[in-house]
């Protein structure tokens, strides 16, 4: 088989790029290790920047997002038994975010690919990129009966943090930066009315909590838990009781509980691999960088990579101009690092660190007090949360 762009990974990054390229007549193939149902079963992000929403529309996959997604013009930070609102719209001169689940967004992209007859191959086993440093890279995978080879001009590694693309780059050609946090997030999805129409990020001495949502009948809640915990340690009853303890009393009294329909624990990690290119293979999304979910940046950073790559590919195939490809890594990383800084800061601000001393705790307290008393500090938070320009 031959194609122009071979994409490893059928998550949001790979699918969005595939759809955008196909709409411009650039042939591509997506190789996804898992089934479609497996990919759609992963409950992840919920908050999208308008830049991302714009790309979904450009990909002709924005209809459902525009009807079912909710525009959020603010969120709350809860602390010391009370809560303060961050007025995203007022602080950014009119900007906001879209609350729309990654599951729904991925479903829309799959449907978009299907409508266009896009080539998305599921259950592609043992995918391997080859000869990336040459002008004739290719991919191989097992389809159950044998090995298939796909020759391409470019390979895109969009296969997430645990994927094969980044790991295929020789160690001396890539540098990795990492911070692992000493806790995880336990997430629960439930068919209940959300406790608040806007998100609440709660700082509490027992640990962080987040009240989020997918719709006005579907809630998504998270609490900070030790890394040693498993979901079996958290029955629904124990989870709801702990969430209530971490919320201001006037919020907790309105919390509607119900059976969980999904429950999972995710570790928190900051990670960047540089450069995001090796020869004719380009990394995008979680394959190159991840953030703790506190600032809602992960999927949005992935979308900005896709934006830069898409335009670089267009310039190459339409105008024979390779400058976008040459500067891709540098441009993408500049934005990636800003997302890293912001996610690290929000995580540090709102979580309880097991090894922090009284001095650290007072500093953290002061950081929150300063933030909520300074219009300029809140404006900086808001500017980063709604997403810096591409
Ligand atoms: P993905 O989604 O991991 O997709 C990669 C795909 O590649 C496939 N794959 C392979 N395919 C072929 N061969 C191989 N060897 C392969 N290895 C892997 C995988 O099966 C998968 O389908 O990466 P992508 O596309 O870059 O997307 C990134 C986002 O998923 C991620 O950044 C966000 O979910 C992060 N995130 C959030 N981001 C936001 O912007 N806003 C949020 O509100 C937000 N909340 C979150 C989050 C992530 C969370 N977790 C669980 C880490 C909340 C949570 C709890
Ligand atoms: C979510 O709804 O899953 C969500 C929202 C905001 C975050 C992280 C996750 O910061």
The portion of residues assigned to helices is 25-40%
Please give the alpha-carbon distance between the first and last residues: 34 Å
Rounded Rg: 21 Å
CA-based shape:
globular
The averaged pLDDT comes out at: 97
What are the segments in which pLDDT stays under 50 over at least 5 consecutive residues? Answer: none
Q: How many H/I helices?
A: 12
- Quaternary structure type: single chain
Count of discrete structural domains:
2
The CATH homologous superfamily name of the largest domain equals: FAD/NAD(P)-binding domain
Which helices and strands appear, and what pairs or packs with what?
Blueprint: E1 5-8, H1 12-23, E2 28-31, H2 36-40, E3 47-48, H3 50-58, H4 63-68, E4 70-72, E5 75-79, E6 82-86, H5 88-92, E7 97-99, H6 102-115, E8 119-121, E9 125-130, E10 138-142, E11 147-151, E12 154-157, E13 175-190, E14 200-202, E15 209-215, E16 218-225, H7 236-246, H8 249-252, E17 260-274, E18 277-278, E19 281-283, E20 289-290, H9 298-319, H10 323-350, H11 358-373, H12 375-386
Parallel strand pairs: 1-2, 1-12, 2-8, 5-14, 12-19
Antiparallel strand pairs: 3-7, 4-7, 5-6, 9-10, 10-11, 13-16, 13-17, 14-15, 15-16, 17-20, 18-19
Helix pairs in contact: 1-6, 1-9, 9-10, 11-12
The protein binds 8-demethyl-8-dimethylamino-flavin-adenine-dinucleotide and P-hydroxybenzoic acid.
């Amino acid at each position: 088989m031959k194609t122009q762009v071979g994409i490893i990974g059928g998550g949001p990054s790979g699918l969005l790029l595939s759809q955008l390229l196909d709409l411009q007549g650039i042939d591509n193939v997506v190789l996804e290790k898992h089934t479609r149902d497996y990919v759609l079963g992963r409950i992840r992000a919920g908050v999208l920047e308008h830049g991302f929403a714009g790309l979904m529309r450009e990909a002709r996959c924005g209809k459902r997002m525009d009807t079912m997604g909710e525009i959020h013009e603010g969120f709350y930070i809860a602390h010391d038994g009370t809560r303060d609102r961050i007025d995203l719209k007022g602080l950014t001169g009119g900007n906001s975010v879209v609350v729309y689940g990654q599951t729904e967004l991925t479903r829309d992209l799959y449907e978009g690919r299907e409508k266009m007859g896009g080539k998305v191959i599921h259950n592609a086993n043992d995918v391997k990129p080859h000869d990336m440093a040459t002008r004739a890279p290719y991919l191989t995978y097992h389809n159950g009966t044998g090995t298939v080879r796909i020759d391409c001009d470019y390979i895109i590694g969009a296969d997430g943090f645990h994927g094969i693309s980044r790991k295929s780059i020789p160690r001396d050609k890539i540098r990795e930066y990492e911070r692992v946090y000493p806790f995880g997030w336990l997430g629960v999805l439930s068919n209940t009315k959300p406790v608040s129409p806007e998100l609440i990020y709660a700082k509490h001495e027992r640990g962080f909590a987040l009240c989020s949502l997918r719709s006005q009948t579907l809630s998504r809640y998270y609490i900070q838990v030790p890394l040693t915990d498993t979901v079996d340690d958290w029955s629904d009853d124990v989870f709801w009781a702990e969430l209530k303890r971490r919320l201001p009393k006037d919020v907790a009294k309105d919390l509607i509980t119900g059976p969980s329909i999904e429950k999972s624990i995710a570790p928190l990690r900051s990670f960047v691999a540089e450069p995001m290119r090796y020869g004719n293979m380009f990394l995008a999304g979680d394959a190159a960088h991840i953030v703790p979910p506190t600032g809602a940046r992960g999927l949005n950073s992935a979308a900005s990579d896709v934006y830069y790559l898409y335009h670089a590919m267009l310039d190459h195939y339409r105008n024979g101009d390779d400058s976008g490809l040459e500067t891709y890594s540098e441009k993408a990383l500049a934005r990636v690092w800003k997302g890293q800084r912001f996610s690290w800061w929000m995580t540090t601000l709102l979580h309880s660190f097991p090894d922090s001393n009284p001095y650290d705790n007072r500093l953290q307290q002061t950081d929150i007090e300063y933030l909520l008393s300074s219009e300029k500090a809140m404006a900086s938070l808001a500017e980063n949360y709604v997403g810096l320009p591409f």
